[in-house]
Amino acid sequence: VFLLFFTTHEELLTLDVDDAFFSTPEDIAARALKPKGGVNFIRTFKKQAEDQAINLPPNLDELVQNATYVQSPDNLVWQYFYNLKGSKEYHFPGGTFQWARYRRNGTGLNETEKIFSESLHKHENTLTLATLRIVSNGLGQPHFHFNANEMGYVMSGCGQAGVILSSGVTFNFNIGIGDVIFFPVGTQHYLKSICDEDLLLVLAYSTGNELETLRMNGYFRGTADHILAQLFSKEQSEFKEFQKAAK
């Protein structure tokens, strides 16, 4: 079972091998593929009633005798493959992230991660991918992304999502296994686990650059306390009570 994300806001267009084959005039296919038997062999192919990208033939064992692949060289594989489950965990109060992403300076990445990171950045339209685990009653605090839309899929647990609009209106909704969530670029949002089980999501971000995120504790503590005092009509000294934002 694969969970797939595609970088398009248009209707996704896909052309399968069998569809391309049956859309090609038989004489053209015969001249291009040059099979033994020529066009007569091409005519032995019959289009299936069901889409074979989804429905496998019932006699597959009879049709396929060998389905092995030769492993490509590691330095080529690493451009397209990343062991996200085995990667470093980044902890925050309430949970952990694991990332498959582009890092601008490659700090902290091993050699295989650097190859993957650089490969992502070579393509104009690509994705940053992550898993997010929020422990029971934990919170992924309000934040927004400067340079990416975010889409997520709930793998386990249940939670509550919140979207905070620029108008000051907040929308809250519950999420559970199999649900998909979407936060447009620049939209402040948060996630909270509300089950005994951890809330686990796979997240995709539509950027080939280093993901830029600003969290509530970052911009709140990054604002001068005398400005906060004016905004909230509280004594300046009271804002010393807030902890410094963690990097």
Describe this structure in words.
This protein has 247 residues and is α+β, with helices and mostly antiparallel strands. Among the domains are: 16-50, no CATH class; 76-211, Sandwich (Jelly Rolls). Helix content is 21%, strand content 25%. It contains 8 helices and 11 strands. It has helices at 17-22, 26-33, 38-42, 60-63, 74-77, 111-121, 216-221, 225-232, and strands at 90-92, 95-100, 128-134, 139-145, 150-156, 159-164, 170-175, 180-183, 188-193, 199-205, 213-215. Strands 1-2-3-10-5-8 form a 6-stranded antiparallel beta sheet. Strands 7-6-9-4-11 form a 5-stranded antiparallel beta sheet. A hairpin with a 5-residue loop joins strand 6 and strand 7 (170-175). The longest helix is centred in the middle third of the chain and has 11 residues, at 111-121.
> What is the count of β-strands?
11
Largest sheet: 6 strands, antiparallel
Secondary-structure element order, N to C: HHHHHEEHEEEEEEEEEHH
Low-confidence stretches: none
Compute the separation of the termini in Å: 36 Å
User: How does the overall form come out from the CA principal axes?
Assistant: elongated
Mean pLDDT: 92
CATH classification, class level of the domain at 76-211: Mainly Beta
CATH architecture of the domain at 76-211: Sandwich
CATH topology of the domain at 76-211: Jelly Rolls
Q: Strand content of the residues, in percent? A: 25-35%
Radius of gyration: 25 Å
- The total of helices stands at 8
Summarize the amount of helix as a percent range: 10-25%
